[in-house]
Specification:
Elements (H helix, E strand, L loop, with lengths): L1 H16 L2 H24 L7 H12 L13 H4 L7 H35 L5 H22 L6 H24 L2 H18 L9 H19 L19 H5 L8 H12 L1 H20 L3 H19 L10 H5 L4 H27 L5 H31 L1
Helix pairs in contact: 2-13, 3-5, 3-7, 5-6, 6-7, 6-8, 7-8, 11-12, 11-15, 12-13, 12-15, 13-15, 13-16, 15-16
Length: 396
Amino acid sequence: MRRQRHQKKMMKYMRYVFNDHFVLVCLFLVGGLAFYYSNLLKGLPTDFVWGLPIVGIIWWVLLPFGRLATLVEPADMTFLLPKEKAMGSYLSQGVRHSIGIPFFIELLVCGALLPLVVLTKQVSFATFFLYLAMLWSLKFANLRVQRFACFQNTKNATAYLMLGWFLLSGVVIWISLYLGAVFGTILGLVIASIFYVLTKEKGRLLDWSKMIERENARLHRIYQFINLFTDVPEIEAKVRRRKYLDGLLARITFKQENTYLYLFARGALRGAEFGGLFFRLLIVGGVLLVSLNDFRFIVGVSLLFIYLIGFQMIPLYGQFDYIGATQLYPVAIKYKRAALQKLMGILLIATAFIFALCSLFQVSIGQSLLLFVVLLVEIGLFSWLYLPKRIKKMEE
C-alpha cells in the first residue's frame, strides 16, 4: 500500500518532469550525442588501446548509482516496532523494488558502450548479455550491503563490505573486458552469492534512526531534481543574500510599471529555485561548449541550453501571486507580462553572450559572432512569440 502511494506520487510528478518540451529536448540531445558518438567510433582505429579502460571506468563509476528504497517514515519507529522481526522480509522486498531503475540505467549504458568494446576487442554483440549479467550481479550485491546497513552495530562491517565490494567490482570488470565476459559473469554471480550470505542480519535489530535518515536523504535528492521542473511541497525554498548582485537590482527604477520586474529579478537572482537553476544550467552549458570542437554541435548545444533556461524560468510568472501586497496594490496585468518578457530577454541575452565567449576556445571569432546572432534570433522567437502564449495559457 505504501509503495503504491509512493509510486502514484512519483507518477504525478513525472507528468511535469517529462512534459512535451522536455521530451523533445531530450530527443534532440540524445540524437545529437548519438550522431557525435557514431562519427567518433568511425574515426577510431581498431587498435585503440584506451577503449576498454574508458568502458571499464564508466561501468565501475556507474555501479554505485541507485539507493535502497525502504519508504520508512519517522512514525514507523514507534508504530512498527512490534513488527520488527517481520522487517527483514520487508527490506528484501525493498531490494527487489530498488533494482529496477539501476538495472535499466546499466542496460542503456552497457548497450551504448558495447560498440566501443566490439571495435577495440573484436568480440560479438552476443557478449552484451554476459556483460549485463555481470553488472546486474554486482549491483545486487551492492543493494544487499545497503540492506545490511539498516541494522544495528553494522557501521564498521558495512564500511568494510562496501569497500571490498567496490574493489572486487573493479577487478571483475577488468577480468570481463580483458580475459573474457564468461569469466567475469561467473565471478559476478559468485560475488553476489557471497555477499548475500555475508549480509544476512542474523538476529540483529534494526537501526530505525539511521534507516529513516537515509530514506529521507534519498527522497530529498529525488525531490530536488523534480523541483527543477515544478513546485514540490517537500522542498523548502531558501533565499540567499548574494550581495554581489545588488548592483543589478539597484538599476531597476522604483515606479509602478517596474513592480513585477523588481520582484521577478529578485526571485531569479536570489531565490534558490530559479537562481540556482539558472546558474547551474549556465555553468553546465559553458563547460560543454568549452569541451566541444564541432561548430554545428556547439550551435545545437547552445540553442538547447538557451531553450532550457528560458523554459525552466517561465514558472517565475506566478511566483508572487500568493503575496498579499500584489493584491492590495494591484498592478496592471500588461506590466506583469512585460516584466517577465524583459527579464527573460536580459537573462537569455547575457547567457548567449557568455556562450559565445566560451565557444572562442574552440572556434574562430567569426563563428562565435555567428553563434551569438543565431542565439539572438532564438531569444527573440522565444520571448516575443512562445512566451506570450505560455503566459496566456497559465492565466486561463
